[in-house]
């Protein structure tokens, strides 16, 4: 078995405000080139895991225990200089909102070459050449115009392409995609999903894909971790979780989503009993931890 | 009595334009180009489209919340497009609206009690505090919220509870027509199913006509009898849910349907339809 | 009233706002009961006792805590009596400025169109005048005296309220709860007063607090140039003006009214910032 890119082990985090668990005993491993979906409803902790890996947790959340190992080295205890080197080069981010993730006052070209020059030490000319190559990879037809544009001159889908190019620019080992298609229309979403998958395959990158949409997971993830209230409820290969869900909550979530091809099905509210059982299970796990 | 409740013909809406005090004439941006739409009694229609399709503007134009530059709106046989604010008031009771963001649509400075009872007094459906409170309590029970929320304010409730308040407020005035604008797009799947089921049940019980606006075709399929697909300010396709979803005629509808990621394992999905969607992406 | 006590609680939880609140309450008490609390008559002159230093410096006389000025008047008593004028002007001028400015701001922001264009142009023109010069001119025209000072400040500073309230009204008018009130059929005026005003009120209240600080300064400036109340009434600005000439011999004549002015304005500003946070129902949680 190959060495995992990322392994999160028994990670727990507490809310500094009221001392409740926002993550509790979360473990997951990611092999090179694997696309892992982190899925759950709001408050499930999927974004918290992504932020913990990136070392950008808000001050209101503090890690209570566990390890986040990137190629074997623990990120939580790493020196800041080591982290600075890793982030932006070996681990990069595709942010959620293409509207605000680009600086409105700077041209696309400058924002695209920044990382290349800072993290890879390229000079202006080679960074520019690489930027054009990247724009070609994410299928921007008119790179010269886009290079000289400001963000507001591009559509949402176009901006998301730039952000994807930015994320894959340094040939990272791990890309974290934090709900990158939530703000987009479905047709654009499909293009972006396709693009992420293609870039990931071309670069052999492992991806953590945070989403609330089980449909998106089914389409682009190799494996899934389903979370509820900071706990891992079920994880495994995507096909297993979608087609043979083991946990009652997973089954209920799949049944709750309406689908246009099966009008009779879907739209069943998650039964109160399922939530009650979930809360009981979680309570037992948390007391077992102590 | 005709079986048509609401009928809009040739609706056009433009934003901006006109002459500023100094400076040149600004061209108006037209967002609806002659839209026709019909809602029958007791029917739930869906209006679906992507961002920029004009679906939200159309909904607000139907309720006369944005001015129309041309076209007519008939409600229950009567032309309401030229009515004054004053003359619209009795009609307003019969046309209600549920909003996308229940937080923004509930006044943060009012208690749920005020939010629910003030419209009753305005339309003369209650003459005393007690009467109004009774009606408010009854509707809360119907949407499965405890009476204690009456003394709370909106920010003290959860997203799902707030949306139930939004639905309760619309149903309270016993309207004939309800416009539901993206009412579940901010909610989790588990809460979404609850809100949709509630709206469906209420509209059946009260014999409501509903115009349900959404970007999500799966949601539309679950609640609507008939669907309008909009694109760039025009109706692209219209038809009964069953036929529109099973045999879509317009290429655009097909494109939309194919872009929805269903929770199925389908390895070929990602690669399908590459050419048509690529062209759209490039143009932007 | 539950709302009021909640707000009070929220203010008292913030140390800066709470301290400011206490300081201002103390100042108000001193001002109201000045005749009883001041150790001496603020106008009583005694050239034998002129230019006495504060109590903790050599050469001080007992009974003159902060010393005396060149005419032998007790500085402590004069600072206390000066607070009366400062606070009367602060409260009255800010109230009138807020009333005029908020009314015009609400109208411009809600009704838009011609009303908005006229009011907005008026604000632009108004704000192009240098405010201190305008106040000096106004008082010169209206004649000096307390009323003129209050009227002058209100006439100048209403624009501060109008601008902010107009922008805030427009922002609120774009929110769905206002659309909802329109869809239910509430008349325009009712929507403005019932729905929008309560949501704009926190901004107005916070601005009033800031405006009180500004009014205190403007009154001091007018007293300083001798255009406020007549010179036989103690004012901080008047004291600063006379102290300026004595800065080399007896610094305390200038420094103590200056400190009173500084602390009062600072307290109003901090209270304003605290009120703003405390009155926001969403931020309060």
Structure description:
- The complex is a heterotrimer of chains A (290), B (284) and C (285).
- Chain A is α/β, with parallel strands linked by helices and 290 residues long.
- Chain A has helices at residues 46-54, 80-86, 108-120, 124-137, 143-147, 156-168, 186-203, 214-220, 238-243, 248-256, 272-289, and strands at 6-15, 21-30, 35-39, 61-70, 73-74, 91-94, 174-178, 206-211, 223-228, 231-237.
- Chain A has a domain at 6-90 and 170-235: 3-Layer(aba) Sandwich (Rossmann fold).
- In chain A, the strands form 2 sheets. Chain A has a 6-stranded mixed β-sheet with strand order 6-7-8-3-9-10, sandwiched between helices.
- The model of chain A has no long low-confidence stretch (mean pLDDT 91).
- By secondary structure, chain B is of the alpha/beta class.
- Chain B has one domain (4-260): P-loop containing nucleotide triphosphate hydrolases (Rossmann fold).
- Chain B has helices at 55-62, 85-94, 102-105, 112-122, 129-142, 159-172, 189-206, 217-223, 241-246, 251-259, 274-283, and strands at residues 4-15, 18-19, 25-26, 29-40, 44-48, 70-75, 78-79, 95-98, 177-181, 209-214, 226-231, 234-240.
- A 6-stranded mixed β-sheet of chain B has the order 8-9-10-5-11-12, with helices on both faces.
- In chain B, a hairpin with a 5-residue loop joins strand 2 (18-19) and strand 3.
- In chain B, helix 4 (112-122) packs across helix 5 (129-142), helix 5 (129-142) crosses helix 6 (159-172) and helix 6 packs parallel to helix 7 (189-206).
- The longest helix of chain B has 18 residues, at 189-206.
- Residues 275-284 of chain B have low confidence and may be disordered.
- Chain C is an all-alpha fold and 285 residues long.
- Chain C has a single domain, classed as Orthogonal Bundle (MetI-like fold).
- Chain C is built from 11 helices and no strands.
- Chain C has helices at residues 2-13, 15-32, 34-37, 75-111, 113-127, 131-142, 146-173, 176-184, 188-224, 236-244, 252-278.
- Chain C is elongated and about 75 Å long.
- The two termini of chain C are 18 Å apart.
- Chains in contact: A-B, B-C.
- The interface between B and C is medium-sized, with 32 and 21 residues.
Number of DSSP strand runs of chain B = 12
Cα end-to-end separation of chain A: 33 Å
Biggest sheet of chain A, strands in spatial order?
6-7-8-3-9-10
What's the total number of strands of chain A?
10
Helix content of chain B: 25-40%
Q: Characterize the quaternary organization of these chains.
A: heterotrimer
In CATH, the homologous superfamily of the domain at 6-90 and 170-235 in chain A goes by the name P-loop containing nucleotide triphosphate hydrolases
Count of alpha and pi helical runs of chain B: 11
Identify the overall geometry of chain A.
Answer: globular
| Level-1 CATH class name of chain B | Alpha Beta
Mean pLDDT of chain A: 91
Share of residues in strands of chain B: 15-25%
Secondary-structure arrangement, i.e. CATH architecture of chain B: 3-Layer(aba) Sandwich
């Amino acid at each position: 078995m190959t060495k995992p890119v990322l392994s999160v082990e028994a990670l727990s985090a507490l809310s500094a405000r009221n001392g409740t668990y926002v993550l509790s005993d979360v473990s997951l491993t990611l092999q090179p080139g694997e696309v892992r979906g982190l899925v759950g409803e709001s408050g499930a902790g999927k974004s918290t895991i992504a932020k913990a890996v990136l070392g950008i947790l808000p001050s209101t959340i503090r890690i209570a225990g566990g390890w986040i190992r990137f190629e074997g080295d623990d990120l939580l205890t790493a020196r800041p200089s080591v982290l600075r080197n890793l982030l932006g080069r070996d681990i990069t981010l595709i942010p959620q909102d293409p509207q605000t993730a680009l600086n409105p006052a700077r041209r696309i070209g400058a924002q695209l070459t920044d990382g290349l020059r800072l993290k890879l030490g390229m000079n202006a000319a080679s960074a520019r050449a690489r930027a054009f190559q990247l724009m070609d990879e994410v299928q921007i037809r008119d790179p010269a115009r886009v290079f000289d544009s400001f963000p507001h001159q591009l559509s949402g889908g176009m901006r998301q392409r730039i952000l994807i190019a930015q994320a894959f620019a340094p040939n990272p080992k791990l890309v974290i995609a934090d709900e990158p298609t939530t703000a987009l229309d479905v047709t654009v979403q499909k293009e972006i999903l396709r693009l992420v998958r293609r870039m990931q395959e071309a670069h052999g990158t492992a991806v953590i894909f945070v989403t609330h949409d089980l449909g998106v997971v089914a389409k682009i993830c190799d494996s899934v971790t389903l979370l509820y209230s900071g706990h891992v409820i079920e994880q495994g290969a995507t096909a297993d979780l979608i087609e043979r869900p083991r946990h009652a909550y997973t089954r209920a979530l799949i049944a709750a989503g309406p689908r246009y091809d099966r009008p009779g099905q879907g739209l069943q509210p998650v039964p109160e009993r399922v939530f009650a059982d979930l809360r009981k299970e979680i309570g037992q796990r948390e007391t077992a931890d102590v | 009595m005709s079986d048509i409740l609401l009928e809009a013909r040739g609706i056009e809406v433009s934003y901006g334009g006109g002459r500023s005090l100094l400076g040149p004439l600004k061209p108006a941006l037209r967002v609806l180009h002659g839209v026709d739409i019909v809602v029958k009694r007791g029917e739930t229609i869906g209006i679906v489209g992507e961002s920029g399709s004009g679906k939200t503007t159309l909904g607000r134009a139907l309720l006369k919340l944005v001015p129309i530059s041309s076209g007519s709106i008939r409600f229950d046989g009567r032309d309401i497009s030229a009515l004054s604010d004053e003359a619209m008031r009795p009609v307003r009771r019969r046309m209600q609206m549920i909003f996308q963001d229940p937080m923004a649509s509930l006044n943060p400075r009012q208690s749920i009690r005020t939010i629910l009872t003030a419209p009753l007094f305005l339309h003369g459906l209650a003459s005393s505090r007690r009467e109004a409170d009774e009606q408010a309590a009854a509707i809360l029970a119907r949407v499965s919220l405890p009476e204690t929320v009456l003394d709370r304010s909106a920010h003290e409730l959860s997203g799902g509870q707030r949306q139930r308040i939004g639905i309760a407020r619309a149903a309270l005035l016993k309207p004939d027509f309800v416009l539901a604008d993206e009412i579940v797009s901010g909610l989790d799947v588990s809460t979404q199913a609850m809100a949709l089921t509630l709206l469906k049940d209420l509209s059946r019980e009260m014999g409501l006509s509903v115009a349900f606006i959404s970007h999500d075709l799966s949601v539309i399929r679950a609640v609507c009898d008939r669907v309008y697909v909009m694109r760039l300010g025009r109706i692209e396709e219209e038809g009964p849910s069953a036929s529109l979803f099973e045999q879509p005629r317009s290429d655009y509808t097909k494109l939309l349907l194919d872009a929805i990621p269903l929770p199925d394992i389908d390895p070929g999905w990602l690669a399908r339809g590459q050419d048509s969607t690529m062209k759209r992406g490039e143009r932007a | 009233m539950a709302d009021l006590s909640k707000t009070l609680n929220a203010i008292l939880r913030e140390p800066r706002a709470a301290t400011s609140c206490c300081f201002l309450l103390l100042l108000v008490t001193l001002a109201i009961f000045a005749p009883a609390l001041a150790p001496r008559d603020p106008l009583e002159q005694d050239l034998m006792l002129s230019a006495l230093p504060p109590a903790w410096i050599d050469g001080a006389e007992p009974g003159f805590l902060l010393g005396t000025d060149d005419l032998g008047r007790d500085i402590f008593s004069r600072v206390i009596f000066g607070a009366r004028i400062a606070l009367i002007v602060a409260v009255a001028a800010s109230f009138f400025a807020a009333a005029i400015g908020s009314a015009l701001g609400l109208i411009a922001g809600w009704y838009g169109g011609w009303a908005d264009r006229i009011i907005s142009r008026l604000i632009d023109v108004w704000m192009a005048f240098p405010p201190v010069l305008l106040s000096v001119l106004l008082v010169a025209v209206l004649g000096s005296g307390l009323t003129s000072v209050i009227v002058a400040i209100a006439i100048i500073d209403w624009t501060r309220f109008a601008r902010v309230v107009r922008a805030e009204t427009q922002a609120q008018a774009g929110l769905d709860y206002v659309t909802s009130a329109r869809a239910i059929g509430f008349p325009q005026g009712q929507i403005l007063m019932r729905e929008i005003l309560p949501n704009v009120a926190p901004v107005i209240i916070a601005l009033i607090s800031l405006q009180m600080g500004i009014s205190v300064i403007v009154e001091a400036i007018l007293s300083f140039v001798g255009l406020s109340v007549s010179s036989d009434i103690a004012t901080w600005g008047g004291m600063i003006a006379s102290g300026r000439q004595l800065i080399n011999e007896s610094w305390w004549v200038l420094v103590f009214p200056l400190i009173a002015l500084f602390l009062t304005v600072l307290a109003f500003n901090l209270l304003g910032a605290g009120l703003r946070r405390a009155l926001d129902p969403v931020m309060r949680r």
